[in-house]
Write a structure and sequence with these properties.
about 525 residues; alpha+beta; 3-stranded mixed sheet; 15 strands; about 45% helix; disordered N terminus; disordered C terminus
Length: about 525
């Protein structure tokens, strides 16, 4: 408390505030005997990038979330490297390296080819600059491209950083990062961890603490609000939580997200739902009072997260990510918005529209209402549409339809969608099982399955038709029914009536007999005479 008061008198400020010189923290080098990182958890290719940079005379460290995960004994999914080499110098050291980005210029160093390739992201230490020292730009990064051209460091009128490509020392680079646990540097060669902001202590206390003044840091880059939720969700199973001072301004700062380009917000929303912690993310949003207002599609996902179908989709997405399997945003969004499509489809069917045009109209309406122009009506929208349109086609299991279905590129996504519908009881489990068998069967087995489907279809159609039964007409008790051939046989139907199950008897019109023995009249007369 006294130190803060003295700093204020001396004109010092905390990182992220304007006025005075910010406190960049004291460098602490933590040896392996203290931090306990297992070198075997470090990706070989990331270590090679660090080694190459160090051999060229530069500083280089693994940085960010990878260090945090290593300290927790986890194997990081991604490895980032920070160095004092400029992007051009980094690019010159590697055969396959590409400079990307304008807002933040970084280098992607590519190892391997095809699906087995891995990208190590290399960034240059950035200087900490107060907003007052940055170029002021009207509008945002989307509307002010001309003003931003050539600028290295710029902010908009609200203080949000639009461009930051000013290189600086490591301590300033650490200060401009978000949380203390993400601001540590690990050298896999010397196995030293460099810590400026007590990140190691916070990791041990399982606390997520923003570096500097939280409200100011959220204003500099509002996406940090979403990152706070994402980190809290990811680390909550390990006991982590956001400290009170960092959490307090979150709700009030949500309004700042309106200035972030929609394309970036869309990407950040997908990170919340598709990084293996979707269920935990929903819980954090509700806990922090942020269930609404971040992004319209995210609001829908949170609202429907407890419905059986959307919950099953979120759980399935988490499972696939944690098993290292790919996930597609089109699938999850198709699940979230299926309720809208299904309801709109049913409304049009009630209006006697043909099923397929009715479904297409319902889909168009959902795109206009829920997605807007974010997807660009491109591949994402096309994949979602294909998943939805497949659903009624799964009901058709005769002719060439099944063979054509399994050949479609998006069949697996459509089937997985249908499988979830069966899991929650929206459709029959037997239908999902049939398609599960059909897609994996050989030709002979497929023929058997087709025959089975035909028989099931016939049986279902027969069951839906009313059953007609012949029942005897009631006779008065005083007139017992006569025995004999004439009583048992009624070729003209004069003594019987038709009745349907569950309904009143339906009388059958009596046929007029022809005189003179025509039409069997002679056969009836002897029977009457014999009585």
């Amino acid at each position: 408390m006294i130190k803060k008061f003295i700093d204020k008198l001396l004109g010092k400020s905390t990182p992220g505030t304007s006025g005075g010189k910010p406190h960049f923290g004291k460098r602490e080098e933590v040896p392996a005997s203290v931090h306990g990182i297992n070198p075997e958890l470090v990706d070989r290719r990331a270590a090679e990038v660090v080694q190459t940079l160090k051999d060229a005379g530069f500083e280089a460290y693994i940085v960010g979330g990878a260090v945090r995960d290593l300290l927790l004994g986890l194997r990081p999914k991604d490895f980032d490297v920070a160095t004092n080499a400029t992007p051009e110098q980094v690019k010159g050291l590697f055969r396959r390296a590409f400079i990307i980005g304008k807002r933040f210029r970084i280098v992607h160093v590519v190892h391997g080819r095809g699906r087995e390739h891995e990208v190590i992201e290399v960034s240059t230490f950035r200087a900490y600059l107060d907003n007052a020292a940055a170029g002021q730009v009207a509008g945002n990064e989307k509307t002010s491209k001309a003003q931003l051209s050539g600028m290295q460091h710029a902010v908009d009128a609200s203080g949000r950083v639009l461009r930051d490509n000013v290189w600086g020392p490591q301590d300033e680079d650490a200060t401009r990062r978000d949380f203390t646990v993400n601001a540590m540097y690990y050298d896999p060669v010397s196995q030293i961890v460099v810590d400026y902001h007590k990140g190691l202590q916070d990791a041990k206390k399982k606390t997520l603490r923003m570096i500097g003044d939280p409200a100011t840091r959220y204003r500099e880059d509002p996406v940090r609000i979403i990152r706070a939720v994402r980190f809290a969700a990811k680390l909550s199973p390990l006991g982590f939580s956001i400290d009170a001072k960092s959490a307090a301004p979150l709700v009030q700062s949500q309004a700042l997200l309106a200035e972030v380009p929609q394309s970036r917000m869309f990407d950040e929303m997908l990170k919340l739902l598709q990084t293996g912690h979707a269920i935990a993310t929903i819980e954090q949003l509700r806990k922090l009072g942020m269930a609404k207002g971040i992004y319209p599609l995210l609001d829908v996902a949170v609202e429907r997260a407890d419905t059986p179908f959307v919950k099953a989709a979120l759980v399935d997405t988490d499972r696939r990510v944690n098993e290292g399997k790919p996930v597609a945003p089109s699938f999850l969004l198709a699940c979230v918005l299926w309720e809208d499509v299904r309801n709109g489809w049913q409304e049009r069917l009630n209006q006697r529209l043909h099923p397929l045009p009715a479904l297409q109209e319902a889909i168009d309406e959902v795109f206009d209402k829920r997605i807007g122009d974010v997807s660009g009506r491109g591949k994402l929208a096309a994949d979602m549409r294909e998943i939805w349109v497949m659903q009624p086609r799964f009901e058709k299991r005769v002719g060439n339809t099944p063979f054509g279905m399994v050949m479609q590129p998006r069949f697996r996504a459509g089937f997985d969608f249908m499988r979830l519908r069966a899991d929650v009881g929206e459709i029959e489990e037997a239908l999902a099982e049939w398609w599960q068998d059909f897609q994996a069967a050989d030709d002979e087995r497929r023929d058997d399955l087709m025959d089975q489907a035909k028989e099931e279809t016939k049986a279902r159609q027969k069951a839906q038709q009313p059953v007609v039964k012949r029942v005897p007409r009631n006779t008065p008790a005083s007139a017992p029914r006569s025995a004999g051939p004439a009583a048992d046989a009624d070729p003209q139907g004069s003594d019987t009536e038709f009745a349907t199950e569950g309904g009143a008897p339906k009388k059958r019109r009596r046929r007029r007999r022809k005189p003179g023995g025509a039409g069997g009249g002679d056969g009836a007369a002897p029977a009457a005479a014999g009585e």
